[in-house]
Amino acid sequence: MNTSALTEQQQQQLIEVATEALKSAYAPYSQFRVGAAILTARGDIVAGCNVENASYGLSICAERNAIANAIIRQGSDKMNLRAIAVVNSKNVSCSPCGACRQVIWEFGRDAQIIFLGERGWQTKTIRELLPAGFSL
Ligand code: THU
Question: Per the residue annotation, which of 8, 20, 63, 128 is the catalytic one?
Answer without folding.
Answer: 63
